[in-house]
Each structure stands twice: as structure tokens, then as C-alpha cells.
Amino acid sequence: MKDRSHRPTAPDRACLPHVLREYAVIADGERGAVVDPEGRIVWLCAPRWHSDAVFSALIGGAGHFTVEPADRWHVWGGAYEEGTLIHVSRWVSADSVIECRDALAMPASADRLVLLRRMRVVRGEALLRLELEPRPGFGAHRMRDPRLEGDAWTASGEGLRLRLLGAPGASWHPDTGLRGEFRLRRGQEHDLVLELSTGPGRHRLDPAELWRTTEREWRRAVPDCSALAAPRDAAHAYAVLHGLTSSAGGMVAAATTSLPERANTGRNYDYRYAWLRDQCYAGLAVAAHGPHELLDRAVRFTADRILADGDRVRPAYTVSGEPMPEERALSLPGYPGGSDRIGNHAAAQFQLDTFGEALQLFAAAARHDRLTADAEAAAQVAVDAVERRWSEPDAGLWELENRFWTHSRLSVVCGLRRIADTVLAETRRRCLHPDGYWRRAADDDGPEAALLVPLARGCADAGDPSAARTRDRVEDRLAEDGYLYRFGHAGEPLGEAEGAFLLCGFHMALAAHRLGDPIGAFRWFERTRAACGPPGLFAEEYDVRQRQMRGNLPQAFVHALLLECAVRLGGASTEPW
User: I need a surface site. Which of 28, 158, 270, 332 has the fewest CB within 10 A?
Assistant: First the structure.
């Protein structure tokens, strides 16, 4: 049943939807904004990732922040500045070339966001249109008491205070928000600075200084990736992970909610939360490269959650460590083919492999001499939890029904020493097929791409025949046209029930590399990393036939595995397998 605490909102006709591959995302660790190719910011939650959206046009709500050429006869393009989430949109018309540089200012604070937009005419001259319609509460409310104070517009509503610098000549209309135009000649620039905060907004808004500190922070945050395979993509993956990771340590799975994995099937989820497994994937990827800041954040956040909740640790939390809310619906149309969900039903699941991934993360931190006292204590808690609960059915990597999933046990084996032999022996007895490959579960002989994870992490020796046989069977049964699917769906061919899972393609690359097949590893790596849009962002799934992305974006664990592949396949790893 729909939650009627929000009144229905008609889709914002000023922001018609685009296919997912065309959107860019800017982020500062505490929240993210989605930018469409026409220069409209169509998604932004404030003040934090899991807060209500102020701009929700992406999922059919009201609210957007547009800077676009008034001349509609143009084509769009754009790119990220290397090693950053500073995005530059670019529009070319018959007689002009225009750019708009977008970023969320850094370093960021949890109670205040600053959005920077710098317009510049590269050639000719141009008339640019500004539209700012802030609509808190997923489009349900309007900002109140708009006024021009000096050279900045101010307004407030639903616990937020707004300031906009750079549009003193614009007009605020009750029904449509702020509207204005700017005419720029070649070489001219114009800055817009939007602040949304929960406080009084007393900070000085100096565009030049804000840009300088943001650029400096990105240079500091992203390490040199020039020695890696695909260095530009590797640096971009690191920037995405940094942009999705809060100063409190939590990394959201994606910046968005409710973007469908399959049209009109109900598979729409809220990924604006920190999954411990995903956090460990990111930490392990970074650790493969070196003892960088994101490793420390992953260790701190994961350890804190395990120490707080013990063997009842949740699969996911808010980025600040609070429990994730239960799933509910809004009164919005949703992105085409999707719906409008916030919260997530996985909040109460038991996922055994989370403990295994955490133990692998702590081991990687120890090898870099980055294991804190809290993390050491959390490792003991995790071992004790596994000892008590490893034989219980769990929801597994894909968050399905509770079963004795093979992947969950093998992930635990990868992270354990004291009780690994016991877990492995029982899992081998129940889950190793007589033909020598690993079953999907104790009661399921089907192929399962999740089994590539423990193979890539060294659960079995490279010479163990079960490793090669499992990998070959997964490739034979679940691969199509160079892309990999999670598992088969009864009665439906691959690609019909769901898209290829990009996480699985990168896991296949790592498994092939570990099993001594460098050519196969690079083939899987190159094919999988091609499944992005022009901005270089990945969603969770890829529709191979339509060459379209599916699901929320940017999907953090896909970028994490791209980074790890780039490190290991490029021979630059500082870590053993």
C-alpha cells in the first residue's frame, strides 16, 4: 500500500527522463547529485544520502536545478576531470560551444552541502537559461519566504535553509521557483553557488576559493594510478568510491533509489545505504593498491558495526551507522519502468558472508599495519559469531531466501583460520558435486557466479581441481556474449529474467587471473569495463541485447572490483592473494 504522508506529485515535465547511461553523478562523500545531459540536476538528497530528496525529478517527482542553452538546437557531451567527480557538461550548437563545470564542494560537512556550477563559453556567444525549483520531501513541499539578500537568494523549508549566489537578476515565481537568463561571450565565465544547510548559513560563499579547495581535495584523495591496467578508469573508480564514502566511514552502495533493474517487475531498491559487504569489497580493492585512506575508513566503519551488534550485525546501515529504515513507498510515478521505494527490506536479514568479508578486510589491513585495536577486537567478535552461526541458513550474497549457500561458507573460510577446516570440511561434504565442482547450495546443483568470489580470494589452492571445474562450469552455463549472469532462472533464457551482473564479470576476471589464465582475465576485464555510459559510471546490471544499464548508479561495488582488477592484472598489487 502506498504511503500517503506525501501527497501525489505529477512528473516534472521540464525534466523528461533519459536512459541511465547518459546521467553523471557528482558527490562529496555525504550526498550525491545526478546530472542529466541537458544540464539539469534531477536528483539530490539533503542534507545526507538517506535524507529526503530536494530534487526528485529522476523518479517522477518535482524539483530540479537547470543550467542549459536557451537554443534547443544543440548536441550534448561531457566528461569528468580525471581522478575527480568534477563533471563538465558540454553543448555544441551551430555557432557556439558552451561548458558547465559541476561539483559538490569539498571537504564536505554532514549538515551543509555546497553545489558549484561554473558556466563558460568556449566559442561564440550564448544565452543560458537558469531554473531552480527546490522541492523538499521528494517534491511534496516548497521552500518558503524566498528573498534576495544582497547578491544571494535565500529561502527555507522542512528544516533546510537555501542560499543561491550568482543570480541577482533572476525572479522567484511561487509556482515554478527561480528563473533567469545569462548572456555570455567567448571566454566569459559565470558562477552559481547553491548552499543547502540545516544551520543558519553564515559561511562566506566565495566561488574561486570553493573551487580551489575542491580541486585540492580531489588531488589529495585519489592516489596515482598510472602503473595500473587502464589507469584512467582505475583513477575514476577510486574517485567514485571516495565520492560515495562519508567522513564517518560508511560508503553508500549507490547514490540513487528506485531505478529499475528490470522494467515493471518490482525490482526497484533503495541503495543510499552502506552495505558492509560492499564496504569490504572497496577496502580490499584499495588494499590491493596500497594503505590508502579509504582502507582506513572501511576498517573503521566495519569494525564499529560489528562491535556494536555482534553476531546480530545488520547487512546495511546508514553511512553514519544507524539502522536502515524499513522499506516503504512514496506517491511518485517513479523512473519509467520502476516505482518509488525508500528504505530496504534487507535491513533485518542474516548474511553470513558479511563476517567472512570483514575478516578478509581486517587481514588486509593487518598486512599494511593498519589494523586498529577496535578492528582487532571486531575480528574476534566476527570469529565467535561465525563459530556460533555458520551452520544456520542465511540470505546470502544475493539476499534471497534463507538456505545453506555455498558462497557464504566459502567466504567465511577465506577469512578464518581457527575454524576454517571444520567449515570447509562440512561445506565440501554437502556442497561439492561428485563431478568435482561446487554446487550453488547444499540442495541446488545449479551454477552460481557468486562462487567466483572465494575462488578469486584463494579459498582453494590454484591447483585444486574444484576451482578450475567450478570456474569452467560457471562460464559455460552463465556466460553469454562475453558477459556473465548471476544464476539461471527456471524456464527463462539468460538475459530475459535480468541483466548481466557486472560485479560477476570482474570476479571472473580475478578468478581467471588467479588460476593462471591472464588472457582470459584481460578478456573478461575489458569486456566488462565497456558496459558503462559516456560518463564512465556503472550500474549493477547491463542489458546486453539493448546495450543499456539497469539499476541504481553509480554502483559502488562494481567500481571497487574494476579498481581491484586494474591493480592485480597490471601487476601493481602490494598484497598477496
Answer: 158
